[in-house]
Amino acid sequence: MKLLFIAFILSAPAFAQFEHDLSGNIEAQGRHSQNNEASREELFQDWNRDDFYLMYGNLNGKASYNNIRLESNWFARHSKSSLYEGGFLATQAYTFPNRLVVRDMFRMQHIKQEDDYKTESILNKLLLGVDFEESRFVFGRMYINYGLGEIFNPINPFNQPTGLTAISQVAQGNDGGSVTYFASDKHTVDLYVLGDKSINNYDGSIDRTIWVHGEVQATEDLNIDYVFGDDQKRYKGGGQVSYQFEEAMLFSQIFYQSHTTHDEISQNFWDALLGYDEQLTNKWHLRLETGYQKKNRFQNPLVFGDRFLPTEYFVALANQYEIHPLIEINGTIINDVKTGFTYFITKGIFSLGSNVEAEVFAFLPVAKGSDPENISQKLVTTDVGMALRAFF
Amino acid sequence: MLRKIFGKEFVFCVALGTGVNNPDEWMKYAEKEMRGDSSHAEMTMTIQTPNWTRTLEIESDVKGKKEALSTITSPAKEKGIRTLRLDNNMWNYFPKLKRKVAVSSSMLLASWMGSDFTNDDILKASSMNEDYDHKFAQDDKEFKVIENTAKNNSKVMWPKIVAYASKKDCLPRMYKYYDKENTLKRVLSFDNIKTFDGHIVPTLWIMKPEDDATKSTTIVYRSLKFNTNFKSSHFSQKNLTGN
């Protein structure tokens, strides 16, 4: 028996597959912002021009031993601007997503805001996963990524799109456990049981989220996602259908959220999205997203909460073009068809080496919104900025 | 003398046995050796242009002729970019953007990551053996020259590929790719033959476009494992996005 044990120990390295990986990025960013008149006069955002500096980075770790893996992401950000001293709201947009972990059962974040700076240190991911032939178990803080929407992705309430921000390389973590069942080559089901802290008006209590996400490849070209569950004290459900044409992809999402399940005054929501995505040429990628998100009448309109997109009905066109293998430009224009609010975002990304790139960006509200109720549109500032990004 | 004995030209390609005079057998052998039933490869790709050079490290998994997954592992800036092929569908995944982009069939001939290789090359979407008819062309001194013409019903990117296979080990040393106008568009050369898991494989691949002599892309295979057992979920959209 002892010999057998020794033989097992000695032979273990031959069977074991230990792999590990450490990677990350660091970015310094500066922007010059100009406030708009409506924000100054109507919303008490009494500033005209200001600068905003931030530095942020991610450290990703991964270690796996056969079918067991440990993954982590540490996100840290330090931002500095006199806008903090005045308590002005624009800083929320510049650092979105600023409540990265809304389901933080494990309390793995530290945020400090004083004087003219804010420092955030957050473990966005720390999970233990075990993979089997037909299933996968994950426990800890995890990313939940699904859905094809880049500007608006309503079927996924666990990870906000950052398509309209200058922040990249950020994903939001969620605490709990998940089981993935690979029912067949063409059907996968995820069950999530998460700790659930209210995004708005957090009163210190943690509920639970029970969520099912399924992915079905119905035909060679047709994919269907379905979601349903109980989250943020609401019953929610919906789905996504995507169809792959010869040249392009068409997709749509619909998502419904009930009134709150607790005895409080609330409203229901429904959101819809229709999207078109085409790689027009080897260098030109085009995306069109149009949709509707029902406004939250009970949320403080001056707070960027769970819905960053300050539009109700919108059409967005995003183009990405590679001028040169080392230079890429992006342009996104989004229009609220109800209010007329139009926002143009452009970015130029220049590769400065195998692991360094620079970005110049501009965020331009080119047309004001006419809806007096849609206050958050007035908060959108005009910004130009630069970023230097390094990967390791 | 040998020519007299065998009645035809003698070649040292013992691996082909009696199939040495059949062009189908040459192409079948090359595909069997270089592709296998399933494989996991680690390679370095260097893209060379007059103004810049870019080096990528890639891991490539292939199972049969319908499933393939490639992942960039270096440099850090591009790390995690993945390309998946399932049947006739292809997707790219860009982790920085968390974007999954479907690659339409019209993009198969498009460059992969700015290299001289195409999406079709990287994902091994075409099978020289199944998609082409083969015939011998005029022999070269060192090479068997095999002209591969696309079958009528096959959906391949190149109507004609001329393969130059070594008469010593029966493996290709060069592919010449021709377009519909029968114009030579690019040349892929193979060198540095090594053995992995009983498969004889060229480990240095150099692709040169004909219209620009200053450009080239080199692939060096660092390691190659054949008959790899992949999980059933390995070639899935779920695995593509890393969820």
Overview of the molecule:
Chain A has one domain: Porin (Beta Barrel), CATH 2.40.160.10. Chain A contains four helices and 19 strands. The radius of gyration of chain A is 23 Å and the shape is globular. About 2% of the residues of chain A have low confidence. Chain B has five helices and 13 strands. In chain B, strands 6-5-4-3-2-1-13-12-11-10-9-8-7 form a 13-stranded antiparallel beta sheet. In chain B, strand 10 and strand 11 form a beta hairpin. Classes of the chains: A mainly beta (392), B mainly beta (243). Chains A and B meet through strand 1 and strand 13 of A and strand 6 of B.
SSE inventory with pairings:
The complex is a heterodimer of chains A (392) and B (243).
Chain A: H1 2-15, E1 18-34, H2 37-42, E2 49-65, E3 68-80, H3 82-85, H4 90-94, E4 109-114, E5 117-131, E6 135-143, E7 173-184, E8 187-197, E9 206-217, E10 222-231, E11 234-244, E12 248-260, E13 269-279, E14 284-293, E15 313-324, E16 327-336, E17 342-353, E18 356-367, E19 382-391
Antiparallel strand pairs in A: 1-2, 1-19, 2-3, 3-5, 4-5, 5-6, 6-7, 7-8, 8-9, 9-10, 10-11, 11-12, 12-13, 13-14, 14-15, 15-16, 16-17, 17-18, 18-19
Chain B: H1 2-6, H2 23-35, E1 38-48, E2 53-63, E3 67-74, E4 82-86, E5 89-94, E6 99-103, H3 119-122, H4 128-131, E7 132-136, E8 143-150, E9 160-166, E10 172-178, E11 184-196, E12 199-209, E13 216-226, H5 237-240
Antiparallel strand pairs in B: 1-2, 1-13, 2-3, 3-4, 4-5, 5-6, 7-8, 8-9, 9-10, 10-11, 11-12, 12-13
